[in-house]
Amino acid sequence: MIEYEKAVLCAVLEQKECLDLFAPSLVSEDFVNDIHKRIWSTLKELKEKHGEASAVAIAEALPGDIEYITALRDYLPSIGVFSTRDIETWIEKVKDRSKLRTLKKRIDAAWTDSYAETASRIIEVASDPDMDAGDFRPLSQYLPEFDRKLAGYLAGRNESCLSTGFRDVDDRLGGGLPLGNVTILGGRVGVGKTAFAWQVVVNVLRECHRRGDGSVGFVSMDMRAEELLERGIWAEAKVDGSKVRRGDVSQSQLDRVLEARQSLEPLMERLKVYDKRATSDFLRYQTMRMMQTDRIRLLVVDFAELVADDKASEVNRIAGIYRNLRELAKSTNVPVLVLSQLNRDVERDMYSSYIPGSDNLKLGGEDVASTILLLYYPFRYQQMGKKLVVPPVFEYQTIDETDSSEVREQKLQANKGRLYLIVAKSRFGGSDPIKLNFVPEWAYITDYDPESEKVGVVRLVARKHGM
Question: Which of 48-52, 189-193, 200-204, 424-428 has the highest mean pLDDT?
């Protein structure tokens, strides 16, 4: 791997024209290595004084570094590079890394961890003459902001929430995901967490595309970016991805896949995906860096337990992850949707409804999140042969021994296509589950339609989309 600082210095030492052309492009502080800073600073000084930086002048100015400079002149040939045509790229890399270091310093300086702040720092901040006097303010001073938001509400603009694109979910949450807050989306394995999050992302991206402004950040700890895209195209095309991978696809299905790819392409330009190992501190840093160039409307983390923070105990590790994500949401006023696996306790009873609660979140998160959403897919347990006792409020179809085969099949199809979203915590209350339509083989989730009870979700979707 090329070391860009060495490459730049090697180029300007060996070719006078490079120094003439690119001396104004960098300052010594752009280099991280102290020797490189000294060399670059000296080269520029010699050029300004004498019009060039000759080998003799360099040796006289930096006698203690001459051995290093001699080795530096051979750097590019030593790695098999015999041209300086890429020097502009090398310089851009050095500048980019310099900007990142500067940004990180600013973020670290500005990011106050209230749990670790010392008394001396508190006194220092409180004594700052540039700070407003006193922390308590009359609530009346926020009335103009209320008036502005009220005008927006009446005009159909909700500036406190981001619409998920799901009708009933937005209604229950007072407009959507609250800005500047963490929303946890929990569920057991295979109940559609990523599918739901993906559909929210696509809905937000469509609105961004319509407005010509905004992007979404997606931290994919669970799957690689290309896998995420693949799943998204299957869902958009409404095809079974496992069959496509086997080549078991009809011409009409292939046409839908190609159409889905084409329709998603302009949206994917606005979706910024990070799929490498990272700590929550690093994700915070990467997000702040991204926000220098993109107006991020939503950040999704899939999923919390895979974020690579290292703490003495798992409880402290997860608590630190959620706390960092909450501070990120607050400081940027961006909603952060965090996916989380539920623990196995919800499935331990032999005869149960298997309905999840916030206490099933792995190692908490309730105290940090303003909203907790839990996905519940009872058909999963029905498929496993478990005995279900689902409360009437869910309107789940109970299979009776006296049911005819036709009625039984209709009930099974209705149950298979029904996914529930339980609002375990919200500022807007409400305890009834939200019904959604779900096609698991497509990883596709959409608003609930009562007609699906009669014809099934697959047929209903096919009818709506002319499939």
Answer: 200-204
Same domain, 271 and 190: yes
Helix or strand holding residue 161 (H, E): strand 161-162
Domain around 59: 4-110
Does residue 324 share a domain with residue 456? yes
Chain centroid to CA 328: 12
pLDDT digits (tens, 9 = 90+) for 380-433: 888 887 778 888 888 888 777 788 888 888 888 888 889 999 999 987 766 789
Number of domains in the chain: 2
Domain containing residue 101: CATH number: 1.10.860.10
User: 271 - beta bridge partners?
Assistant: 216
Among candidate residues 403, 323, 330, the one with its CA nearest the CA of residue 116: 323
394 with 251, same domain?
A: yes
Peptide bond into 196 cis (omega under 30): no
Domain-embedded: residue 459: yes
Q: What pLDDT is recorded for position 126?
A: 45
3-state secondary structure 300-364: EEECHHHCCCCCCCHHHHHHHHHHHHHHHHHHHCCCEEEEEEECHHHHCCCEECCCCCHHHECCC
Backbone φ and ψ of 75, nearest 5°: -60, -50
Cα–Cα distance between 171 and 384 in angstroms, integer? 33
Same domain, 102 and 176: no
- Residue 266 in domain: yes
**Last residue of some domain: 90, 110, 130?**
110
**Please, are residues 163 and 335 in contact by the beta-carbon 8 Å criterion?**
no
- The predicted-structure confidence for 298-321, as pLDDT tens digits, reads as follows 999 987 777 777 765 777 777 778
Bridging pattern class, strands 296-302 and 215-220: parallel
Q: Which of 12, 9, 15 is nearest to 32 (CA)?
A: 9
CA distances from 324 to 220, 313, 435 (A): 17, 17, 32
Residue 202 contacts residue 190 (beta carbons within 8 Å)? no
User: What global pTM score does this model have?
Assistant: 0.70
Q: Report the percent of the chain where pLDDT is more than 90.
A: 33
CA distance 328 to 43: 42
My answer on whether 252 and 364 are in the same domain is yes
Tell whether 454 is covered by a domain. Answer: yes
| CATH number for the domain that contains residue 355 | 3.40.50.300
Inter-CA distances, 345 with 35, 350, 359, 405, Å = 58, 11, 9, 34
132-149 core/surface letters (b: 16 or more CB in 10 A; e: else):
eeeeeeeeeeeeeeeeee
Contact 16, 52 (CB under 8 A): yes
